[in-house]
Amino acid sequence: MGSGDYLGSTVRDLTLANSLHRRGFKVVIYWMMEENRDLADAGIEHRMLCHGTRYHFQRPSQVLDRWLGSLLFLLPKRWRVRAIQRKASYVDRLLANLVRSLYAQPQPDPALALRLRALIERDDISHLMVSFGTLGPLALAAKRAAGRHFDYVLTFQGDEEFAAHAGRIGLLDVYRQRLNQSLAGSPWKSIAVSEDYVSRIVDDIQVSPARLQVVYNGVEQKARAEAPSFAPIKALFPALRQDVPIVLYLGRQDSEKGIDLLLYAVRLLAGRALPMQLVICGATAKGPSYRKVLTELGQHLGLRVHHAGTVSAALRDALYAHSYCVVYPSVNREPFGLVVAEAMSHGTPVLVPDYGGVAEVIRDRGRQGGLCFRTWDSGDLARQLGRLFEEPVLYRELAGNARAVAARFNVDNMTDAILAHIGLQAHPPGPAEPAELPLRA
């Protein structure tokens, strides 16, 4: 789905797609509503299954999808995103209508299921990986249609948002029932990104734990090489000093990310004269309102905040490498936390809430690459952040562990686990027998 609340799932899928492509597998990406092709390696094929305009109304519109959607996609992506975010509720409306199209009728969006089936036959697909379990009825309908046989595996990351939409439109019971039917229609267990997220799916969506398998997300591991230049950071934040520790938040700037808790925590530490600079970077999925709140809150608290929006991958890596620590103060029950794994892969300690799958990411075989704080508690966040500055032995231990802890989330581990899960060879056969593993992201 490209971006917004579901960017983490998209990054996971595109990372996997790139890994499979580099191993010689044939990979095709089917996009829904929006796309993010910049994350994919050259040579990977892309198809637009449907545009977001399809779900402008409660009933799917072929005309708005094929004609208006195609015309809008002639515009630069940043223009489309900016236009949609002018009214934050519009994305929720599209997603609610998507859920309605899959669950309110006996057949899930029949025209789209036929289109998916046609693409699968045209692309000679053998395996379909579905980014969200919620889209399972669509995959099941395509599988049941006549034509070339294929199988699908469902993945869960962010499906609680879809379940919430189903509840708001009175379809939660139907949603749960049909989602479980979709799971039963696959020969493989569905993939979830953490142990905690399995528990959440079982509780919130009422999926049987016997139908779920944990495969952690993978991130590119950074070699122990010379740190990236500080120059691009200085260009973005001219007042930022390289000799003063940087406390970094990097991620979406939306209310569920709890960035205001970080501001309160830094203010609570102000009287202790701890040298630190606060940097906040990241896109938004729901418009600029929360970012404006953060700006005003920082001013009210008397904090110097170095604040920016989306940053490039190179600048992101430079920020990770030059930061003293990365804070991930989410008030949501996060399924995983790619930012946390990425930061640790640079040897940078992290602070995370003790709630959700993100708490699993900082630990491995008795080692920790960061600390937990009590969720929603800015006072405890301040205490744990203070420890990183005032307990040098602890800080060195966490920094020394960070890369090793992050290593279990390397891309090869994820790729091997998924291939093994669906019964494909980790190393594809030769050119005479090309393996086929198209992905839907």
How would you explain this protein's 3D organization?
The chain has 441 residues and is α/β, with parallel strands linked by helices. The chain folds into 2 domains: 4-218 and 410-440, Rossmann fold (3-Layer(aba) Sandwich), CATH 3.40.50.2000; 231-407, 3-Layer(aba) Sandwich (Rossmann fold). The protein is 44% helix and 13% strand. The protein is built from 18 helices and 15 strands. It has helices at 7-22, 62-72, 77-85, 89-103, 110-122, 136-144, 159-168, 172-184, 195-204, 231-236, 259-268, 289-300, 313-322, 338-345, 358-361, 378-390, 392-407, 411-421; strands spanning 28-33, 45-51, 127-130, 151-156, 190-192, 212-214, 246-250, 277-281, 305-307, 325-327, 350-353, 363-364, 367-368, 370-373, 439-440. The strands form 4 sheets. The protein has a 6-stranded parallel beta sheet, sandwiched between helices. Strand 12 (363-364) and strand 13 form a beta hairpin. Helix 1 (7-22) crosses helix 18 (411-421), helix 5 (110-122) crosses helix 6 (136-144) and helix 14 (338-345) packs across helix 17. It is globular. The protein starts with 6 loop residues before the first helix and ends with a strand. Residues 430-441 have low confidence and may be disordered.
